[in-house]
Each structure stands twice: as structure tokens, then as C-alpha cells.
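queue> pop job 88
queue> type: inverse folding (structure -> sequence)
queue> payload:
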């Protein structure tokens, strides 16, 4: 009699053990599938509402709309300057620069600030056209650049600049900002 009870209890325990083992295998497969799904999924991050239009970044690429907004803002920041705000101007540009280009860009900006400090020369920029290429992470901005001494506009000229970008880890960084001529070559 005790043997029958013992055998029945062992069979019940074996069924429970097998059920728990099957549940563990199922949960392990499910966890593995979730890890794989997270590894290959393209993350999306919604940006702050201060942009003029809705935009989102993907971990795999930059949208043309976002690149256009970034280009517009960087062009206005970089090309509008006055002696009164030179330190702020330089800090804000350097905050956007990729670490690989930081030293070169900072040296160029320090030279510009040294030349302009204490003068009455300001620059004003009016955007005329903008073209972006999210595949190559480049953009071109064309506009009218006015040079102002005191209150007198001494020159106005239509010019084009090429911006080169880097994108990694949801961060769009500036690699270069070159002044180009009408034939597409960099201006000396």
C-alpha cells in the first residue's frame, strides 16, 4: 500500500517537473526571441517640440526633413555674427561639431574671433535655397551674405556653403562648413 502511494506521488512530482521544464524552455525561447527582436529593431526617438515641424530620428538614418532643419539652424547660427556675441557664437558652434573635427574648427573660429573682436564688423545672412542629401550626409545652403560696418552695409553677395555631417548614436554632428564657388569647388 505504501508502495502504491509512493509511486503515485512520484508520478505526480514527475508530471510537475516535466511541466515546469517545458515552461522554462518556452520562456527561454521567448526571451531569446525578444533579444533578437531588440537587436535588429530600428529605434525611433521623438524630438523636442521646438522644431517648426514634427520630426523623428531613426537609429539607422537621418530623415531629409531633420537634416534640412539642422542645416537651416546651423547656417543661421554660423553666418550671423556680431562682435558683441562672439564668445557665445563660438561656443554654440563648437557644441555642434563632431569630435574628429573639433580641433580644426576651434582653431578656425579662434582666429575669426581674434580678427573680429573690437571691430564694428557684423555679418547678416538671408537664406535663399537649401538642398540636403541624407544618403551622403551633406547639405548646401545658398543665400545673401551682407557685411555691415557700424550701421553701413558695405557688401552684399550671393554665396553657397556646403555642410558635411556625421550621424552616430542619434547625434547629428557637424564635420565641416565650406564656402564653395559657383562651379562647386571650395573657395580659398
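queue> result:
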Amino acid at each position: 500500500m505504501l508502495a502504491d502511494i509512493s509511486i503515485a506521488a512520484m508520478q505526480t512530482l514527475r508530471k510537475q517537473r516535466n511541466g515546469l521544464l517545458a515552461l522554462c524552455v518556452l520562456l527561454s525561447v521567448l526571451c531569446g526571441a525578444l533579444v533578437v527582436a531588440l537587436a535588429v529593431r530600428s529605434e525611433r526617438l521623438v524630438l523636442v517640440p521646438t522644431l517648426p515641424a514634427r520630426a523623428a530620428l531613426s537609429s539607422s538614418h537621418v530623415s531629409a526633413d531633420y537634416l534640412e532643419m539642422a542645416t537651416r539652424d546651423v547656417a543661421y547660427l554660423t553666418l550671423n555674427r556680431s562682435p558683441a556675441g562672439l564668445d557665445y557664437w563660438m561656443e554654440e558652434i563648437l557644441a555642434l561639431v563632431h569630435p574628429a573635427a573639433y580641433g580644426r574648427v576651434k582653431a578656425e573660429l579662434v582666429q575669426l574671433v581674434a580678427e573680429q573682436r573690437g571691430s564694428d564688423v557684423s555679418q547678416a545672412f538671408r537664406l535663399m535655397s537649401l538642398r540636403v542629401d541624407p544618403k551622403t550626409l551633406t547639405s548646401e545652403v545658398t543665400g545673401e551674405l551682407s557685411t555691415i560696418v557700424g550701421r553701413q552695409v558695405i557688401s552684399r553677395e550671393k554665396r553657397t556653403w556646403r555642410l558635411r555631417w556625421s550621424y552616430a548614436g542619434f547625434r547629428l554632428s557637424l564635420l565641416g562648413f565650406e564656402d564653395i564657388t559657383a562651379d562647386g569647388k571650395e573657395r580659398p
